[in-house]
Amino acid sequence: MVIDLQRVSVPNDGRTMNGFLARPDGGSSTGVVVIHEWWGLNKQMEDTCRRFAQEGYLALGVDLFNGQVTDNAERAREMMLAIDKQQTLETLFSSVKYLRLDDGCTGKVAGVGFCFGGAWSLDMAIARKVDAAVIYYGNVDRPSEEIRNISCPLLGHFGLQDTGIKPELVREFEGKLKSEHKDHELHWYPAGHAFANPERPAFHEGSAELSWTRTIAFLRNKLNG
Fold first, then answer.
1. Cβ contacts of 190 within 8 Å, gap of 6 or more
2. Taking CA 141 as the corner, what is the angle to CA 49 and CA 130, rounded to the nearest 5 degrees?
3. Rg of the Cα atoms in the chain
4. What is the pTM of this model?
């Protein structure tokens, strides 16, 4: 499949967000907003967008750090803590709108986020801005009243050996989803945090491939894309 990858500027309330747009060849596609880890919109995220496009999805890699990218954890934490929550949400909502208006989009859009981005994928679901949401080991500590707002299907991938997003936190989240009767599936992997990122020490190939297969199956099942 031929993939067209380009830099795009997404209008956002008088500002712009620069990101990667990976477009598959062929007809209309389901849109996917790809939300980066706390390292920023780096080459690995570009590759992830391209990989979604190879599966037939119109993938927009958003940049929530205004071009800042790092490999240093301390600097990544600073970048993460410096962002404004409401402005970030507006950027994500504008990104969803941008995809929906694209002639190559079916009108359906999912959020897929990794770590830092996983939490934002959940927040988009809570705000009812996406048609499905995928969370890769993101912070899911949310009150029940927010969980109650979710109206789209959720998929979550979590590591049993994750010392940051601890299993007990995810179990509590799962309990809230069940109590509120939300459409969800959560999967556990014999791995630590960031197990799906081939550039990190915790990368676990078997878990990464299985989670990817499940993600694609979930999107096709829930969004018919």
1. 159, 160, 161, 204, 207
2. 40
3. 16
4. 0.96
* Total length of the chain: 225
Do residues 64 and 89 touch, judged by C-beta distance below 8 A? Answer: no
The answer to whether the beta carbons of residues 81 and 1 sit under 8 Å apart is no
Q: Are 38 and 115 in contact (CB under 8 A)?
A: yes
| The pair of three-digit structure tokens given for residue 207, joined into one six-digit string | 């878990």
> Quick count: other Cβ atoms within 10 Å of Cβ 153?
21
Q: What is the pLDDT of residues 97-145, one digit of tens each?
A: 999 999 999 999 999 999 999 999 999 999 999 999 999 999 999 999 9
Handedness of CA 137, 138, 141, 143 (dihedral sign): negative
Positive/negative CA dihedral, 54, 5, 42, 9: negative
Q: How many CB atoms lie within 10 A of CB 90?
A: 15
140 and 170 Cβ atoms separated by less than 8 Å: yes
Q: Cα separation of 90 and 86, whole Å?
A: 6
Distance CA(64)–CA(40), nearest Å, equals 7
Other CB atoms closer than 10 Å to residue 201's CB: what's the count?
7
Type of residue numbered 210: L
Phi, psi of 157 (to 5 degrees): -120, 125
